[in-house]
Design goal:
single chain; 19 helices
Length: 412
């Protein structure tokens, strides 16, 4: 990729990572419950995914190794297998939630039965992955996801709390009792995890190989990681800000995706709602494509099997069978348990268990001077990467207890 237009890879990754169904749920609920007091977690998660995406892209461009090449090469066999099993499991659950979210949004827009919308969503994802070249996937979904900018535009319409009121309400959060502070911690873990989902790193590094990056693309890699994910941050922050300023004053608890669309309905009316729903649909579709493809990337890279969108079914049978199997599993799971919101919340919380090992492998590989040569991690990347690993470990240790004591974020 030698052109600035290739920033679309960063944009679609950012939209999939920051504005997937998990982020839609956690950010809007956090804004409605805690106003803007959790924005620091979103800033932290954005910094982490930028740092590690640049690292993973640099690793791929310089060595041709991706995340699960690093897992295979740099972790012990037991840790490598643990990383693979946990990442495949949480990514499959995440793909199930994304596909269910697509079905739910289609149902909102058409009023058709959920099962029919789910099957149509699965057919769309299958056709996209099976038929479209990688470059078309990243550019088309990136551009269509730009409809999410309606949430940014909604920020500038004053039909809710003023800035001073928002600050006062956000500060008042810390006077809550102990159960509500535990709920605050639960949403903090959820926002951090949904900002740094493991499939994002996997898709980003694999995309660099798909696009045949070399060390000549290291500058564009930094731009993609920095600008692309920062763009996702602003859209994500707008979701939280609109929920805090427009939904919270009206006592609206956005438990459903339709409530999120209210953020655009209130300032713009029904045309804003349609832009919001279409934007959410294409963002979630991008995440569904990324998660399904990422399972094929993980399995094939770990076992050193052929993979890639440019390879046919005959050339890379395991890669194509893996992503298709994930789509089929997601269909079956959603038909048996049609609760994509609950599945998405579980996917986000349990994903933090898979994060540390995958991120650790990338950090170790990028710090290996023999492997990376002059492109080895500098002091900032070494210290910053290690600091984020420590944060992720703390999040992993506390995630399940917080899920239990808050009844999945339902204490209020």
């Amino acid at each position: 990729m030698g052109d600035i237009a290739d920033l679309a890879l960063g944009i679609v990754s950012a939209m999939g990572g920051f504005v997937d169904i998990g982020e839609l749920i956690f950010l809007t609920q956090a804004g409605a419950k805690f106003y803007m007091s959790l924005i620091w977690v979103l800033v932290l998660g954005t910094a982490g995914v930028i740092l590690y995406s640049e690292m993973a892209g640099r690793l791929a461009a310089v060595t041709g190794y991706t995340v699960f090449d690093a897992v295979r090469l740099k972790l012990s066999r037991p840790l490598g297998w643990t990383a693979l099993a946990s990442s495949v499991l949480v990514t499959t659950v995440t793909a199930t939630a994304e596909l269910g979210g697509m079905g739910l949004l289609l149902q909102l827009m058409t009023n058709w039965p959920f099962w029919l919308c789910l099957l149509l969503a699965a057919a769309l994802v299958t056709l996209i992955v099976a038929l479209l070249p990688f470059s078309v996937i990243e550019n088309s979904l990136g551009l269509l996801g730009l409809m999410m900018l309606v949430f940014l535009a909604a920020v500038f319409y004053k039909n809710g709390l003023s800035a001073s009121d928002l600050m006062a309400q956000s500060a008042a959060v810390f006077s809550f009792d102990w159960p509500h502070l535990l709920l605050y911690a639960y949403f903090a873990v959820g926002i951090l995890t949904s900002s740094m989902m493991p499939y994002e790193l996997i898709f980003y590094a694999s995309g660099a190989i798909e696009e045949e990056w070399t060390s000549k693309q290291l500058t564009i890699n930094r731009l993609i990681a920095g600008i692309g994910f920062s763009f996702g941050f602003f859209v994500a922050a707008a979701l939280m800000l609109n929920a805090a300023s427009k939904l919270a004053p009206r006592g609206i608890d956005p438990q459903l995706l339709g409530a999120t669309a209210l953020e655009a309905i209130l300032p713009f009316g029904w045309w804003g709602a349609w832009l919001a729903m279409l934007g959410m649909f294409f963002a979630v579709t991008g995440a569904a494509v990324e998660t399904s493809m990422s399972t094929g990337y993980m399995v094939c890279q770990f076992f050193e099997l052929p993979w890639g969108k440019s390879k046919s079914l005959r050339e890379a049978p395991v890669f194509h069978a893996s992503w298709l199997l994930v789509v089929l599993v997601a269909i079956a799971a959603m038909l048996l348990y049609p609760q994509p919101i609950q599945v998405a919340e579980l996917a986000v919380i349990f994903s933090v268990l898979a994060l540390p090992l995958a991120y650790l492998a990338v950090w170790i590989a990028a710090c290996d001077r023999q492997l990376m040569g002059m492109h080895v991690n500098r002091a900032v990347s070494r210290v910053g990467g290690l600091s984020f690993l420590a944060i992720l470990i703390v999040a992993a240790v506390t995630a399940i207890p917080l899920l239990i004591v808050t009844s999945g974020g339902q204490i209020w």
